[in-house]
Amino acid sequence: MNIKSHGATEHKNGGAAAPRTAAFFDVDGTLVNSTIVHYYMRFRGLLLHPLIRPLWVLWFFRKVPYYLLMDQMSRTKFNTVFYRNYRGLDVERLKELSLETYDTFLRPKIYPAAADKVREHKAKGDLIVFVTGSLDFIIDPLADHLEADHVLSISLREENGKFTGELTTPPLGGEEKARVMKAFAEQREINLAASYAYGDSRADVPMLRCVGNPVVVNPNPVLRHMATESGWEICDWD
Questions:
Q1: For residue 213, what are the β-bridge partners?
Q2: Cα-based distances in Å from 230 to 205, 206, 223, 225, 234
Q3: Facing residues of 161 across strands?
Q4: How confident is residue 16, by pLDDT bands cut at 50, 70 and 90?
Q5: pTM, whole model, 2 decimals?
C-alpha cells in the first residue's frame, strides 16, 4: 500500500493530538463513474496508432467476459491479473498522459454529489482519505482536485523505465482495504467508530464494516439489500 499526503494538516490540542474522525472514500464507482479497465483502455487508445486502435479494441473485448467472471470470483485476483496488461509500457509516458488527460477524461466522470460530500466532510474538519485499488499516478490528480488529505493506493513495479505488470504490494480490495484502513487509523489516531466510509461494491464491504458510519453508494440490488438489512445509509449519486 502507498500512503500519499495531499496537504493534510495536523490538529493539536494543548500539545497533544486531538481525537480525529475521517471520511474514507472508495474511488471507482463511488467518487467517479469509472474503473481500472476504463483507465487502461484510455491509455492504450492514446498510445496506439489510429489505424491499429479498432483492431486492438476488438481483440481486447474478447477478454472482457473472462475479466468479468474473475472479478465476480475475486476482486483481488482480478486486479492482480488485469494489471499485467501494463507490462512493458513506458512509465513516464503513462504518468504524463494521466496528467494531460485528467480534465478531459477523469474529471467529467466525478459524481457531483460525491464532490459535494467530500467538501461537506472537509468543512466539518474530517480527514479526507481515498482508499483505492487503482494506480497511484492515476488517482493523484483527482486527489489534488478534490483536496483529499491522504490517498491509500497501489503502484506497479518499474524496471528500466518500464512497468513490469506486477504490483509492489498486495491489491487493495476486500479484506486488504480493511486492514490498511485500520493500520492507517492507528498511525493517525483516528476514531474509526466516529468515522465514515463510502463504497459501492461487495469488495468495499470490509472497509464499510470498519467504521461507525458506513454509507453504500450506487449499490446493485444485492448490496442494497445487504445495506438495508445492516441499517447502513444508502446514497444514489448517479
A1: 196
A2: 11, 13, 10, 9, 11
A3: none
A4: very low
A5: 0.90
